């Protein structure tokens, strides 16, 4: 799909829920010299009416039919930000009409669906970019360079423990709303699709019991977990196996952890959601004489920087700590600028469909290591 330089990309958004209201509509509006929202799609007419008034610039068209949006000549980029279960069907529609498709993570919940997207992209003039916004933070990119300079990696920690999302959303200044005017057929279709996806992912692909507990764990990995594990992959590569994993328990706040084995070091991963209103997310890598730490804050409140912290022994034997903050631009803004560069300037896409498939492989490694009564060990 060729797009002229110095053009304003016309964006159609599928899904008018929280992430669209809090992040995508404001960010695309701030970048009005590059983007214009021209179409909105949702199963809730009330959500469409609400979001239509939030768009900066001309009033976008609305529809409850995703194919109508994907087929429109008023849309250059299809942004998929609805419930996870429909990411793949709507991505396939966007590719069917040769659009550039931006998919919020997780791109897919099963290897089968990930392969469908990869194959459809090969047959399309369109392209796929997956929304791993943390991987576009300037501090993260700087940390990749620092990690690459280490003589060897001895150990790493990946941590993501956050409080209730409502605490951050409520202070974002975007005043999002939720709506319940769904047709029963839409609710039924979603429940059916979720059940089929869990059966495919757990029972068919992983050969673990498709229990409610493991299904919930799979969804946690696809939501909060995919941020961390995707960034871990870019910083450190794919682990060779999972040495052990502790999954969510049936009661209490959801917390989970895993120990990943790499060829010459291990990575401790811990994540969870509780009732404390704070955002504690980081990646820390330990070398012989230098430690590199990327520290994330909530992206829902704009202007909170992602920072890189370095602790190192200097050649003269002294110890130095430094904190690098290159920009106050939030990861969503940086991600949208990257999207523009990929669409208009032909810049290679980093977070591709094939890249996103690796997350699903890691999810499987974690569940197979931690699932009760598993038939096989971690792979």
Automatic annotation (TrEMBL):
Domain Gfo/Idh/MocA-like oxidoreductase N-terminal, residue spans: 9-132
Gene Ontology CC terms, in alphabetical order: cytoplasm
Gene3D superfamilies on file: Dihydrodipicolinate Reductase, domain 2, NAD(P)-binding Rossmann-like Domain
A GO BP annotation: NADPH regeneration
Pfam families: GFO_IDH_MocA (PF01408)
Example GO molecular function: oxidoreductase activity
InterPro entries: Gfo/Idh/MocA-like_OxRdtase_N, NAD(P)-bd_dom_sf
Protein name, entry field: Oxidoreductase
Species this protein is from: Penicillium alfredii
Classification of source organism: Eukaryota, Fungi, Dikarya, Ascomycota, Pezizomycotina
């Amino acid at each position: 799909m060729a797009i002229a330089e110095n053009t304003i990309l016309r964006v159609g958004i599928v899904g008018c829920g929280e992430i669209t209201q809090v992040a995508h509509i404001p960010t695309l509006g701030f970048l009005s010299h590059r983007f214009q929202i021209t179409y909105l799609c949702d199963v809730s007419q009330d959500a469409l009416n609400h979001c239509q008034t939030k768009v900066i610039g001309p009033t976008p068209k609305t529809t409850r039919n995703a194919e109508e949006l994907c087929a429109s000549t008023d849309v250059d980029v299809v942004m998929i930000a609805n419930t996870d279960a429909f990411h793949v069907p709507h991505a396939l529609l966007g590719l069917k009409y040769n659009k550039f498709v931006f998919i919020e993570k997780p791109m897919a919940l099963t290897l089968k669906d990930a392969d469908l997207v990869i194959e459809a992209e090969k047959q399309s003039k369109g392209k796929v970019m997956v929304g791993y916004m943390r991987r576009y933070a300037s501090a993260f990119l700087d940390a990749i360079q620092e990690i690459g300079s280490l003589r060897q990696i001895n150990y790493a920690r990946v941590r993501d423990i956050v409080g209730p999302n409502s605490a951050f959303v409520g202070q974002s200044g975007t005043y999002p709303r939720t709506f319940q005017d769904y047709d029963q057929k839409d609710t039924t279709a979603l429940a059916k699709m979720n059940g089929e996806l869990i059966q495919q992912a757990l029972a068919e692909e992983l050969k673990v019991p498709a229990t409610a507990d493991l299904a919930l764990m799979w969804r946690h990995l696809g939501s909060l977990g995919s941020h961390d594990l995707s960034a871990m992959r870019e910083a450190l590569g794919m682990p060779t196996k999972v040495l052990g994993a502790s999954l969510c328990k049936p009661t209490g706040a959801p917390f989970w952890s895993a120990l990943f084995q790499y060829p010459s070091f291990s990575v401790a991963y811990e994540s969870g959601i509780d009732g404390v209103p704070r955002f504690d997310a980081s990646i820390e890598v330990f070398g012989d004489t230098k430690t590199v730490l990327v520290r994330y804050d909530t992206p829902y409140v704009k202007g909170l920087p992602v920072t890189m912290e370095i602790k190192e022994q200097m050649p003269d034997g002294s110890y130095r700590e430094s904190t690098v903050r290159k920009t106050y631009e939030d990861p969503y803004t940086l991600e949208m600028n990257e999207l523009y560069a990929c669409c208009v300037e032909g810049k290679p896409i980093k977070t591709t469909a094939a890249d996103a498939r690796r997350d699903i492989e890691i999810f499987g490694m974690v569940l197979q290591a931690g699932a009760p009564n598993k038939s096989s060990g971690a792979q």
